Amino acid sequence: MYDESPVPRADLLAMISDEISEVYPDYGIKKTEALAVRVLEDLYILARCAISKCRLTYTDAIILRGYGNRQNGKWLDDVYGFAISPLGFPDLTMLVVNAATGQPSEDAFEARRSKLSEIQVSEVPREQNRCIWFDGYEAVLGPLEPIPKEYHYARSVMPEPPLETEIRRAVSNAIQRVNGVGKVTMKFGKEYAGSGSYSELCLLTSQLLKKQKGRCALTGQPFEKRSAAEGGVQDDRMSLDRIDNSHGYYDGNVQLVTQFANRARGQMSVEEARRRLIQHEEP
Questions:
Q1: Is the pLDDT of residue 174 over 90?
Q2: For residue 51, how many other CB atoms are within 10 A of its CB?
Q3: CATH label, 157-276, candidates 3.90.1150, 3.30.160, 3.30.40, 1.10.10
Q4: Which residues neighbour 277 within 8 Å (Cβ) at sequence distance 6 or greater?
Q5: How far apart are CA 195 and CA 268, in angstroms?
Q6: Gene3D superfamilies from the entry (predicted)?
Q7: Are 59 and 39 within 8 A, CB to CB?
């Protein structure tokens, strides 16, 4: 259905109401209509996440919805069952996550899993990436407003899931090196002086990766994209390096280097590190 012209709101509400009546036959028509309206509005929020290429937390989703329990993602199941699945969309519910874990709640995930597939929790980021790069939402729903940047928990910056995973790993490691704090700090990001937020650093890292043509700024070595379990050389994996270590991670003070080069540089200047790492060649 997603390759057709935008569907009028009344028709979408009718479709959702038809799906609800099969599951909740005891609901009166008013309650069914009210639930259909909520499901449709929640569908718009999730599709707005996708066009913004971002995830958001339950707390921020509740702010955007204007009601609900910030600890509970169960409302996502109604959106999946009554709207996403009938419309043939990818599973947009995985774009909204618990801030503490970065994952959908276990209850919501298990309820959805029985309907969708045998996807494992460990595969959720890859599935989120698939949803985010799908471009058929506005073809059905019409023009959508992006999610305001202050609500972005994380942004997806690469269409290739393995490379997206590498970017997130490198950014997470950089933040943890500065202050040893986990995902709450990644969300707000300004607690380590001068540094960007988690989502800002993911975007910056993707830009630097293109600018450096996938190579270390100090050695010219191509970055390893595979994990140790996949046979990758871990010393060659991507790492964020502050050009001036007295300042934070921000545009103009970050370069991408291998993990080996980052350790080898230590407190040396960039120029000295390049002289000592004699393998360096301009790509």
A1: no
A2: 18
A3: 3.30.40
A4: 218, 219, 261, 264
A5: 21
A6: 3.30.40.220
A7: no
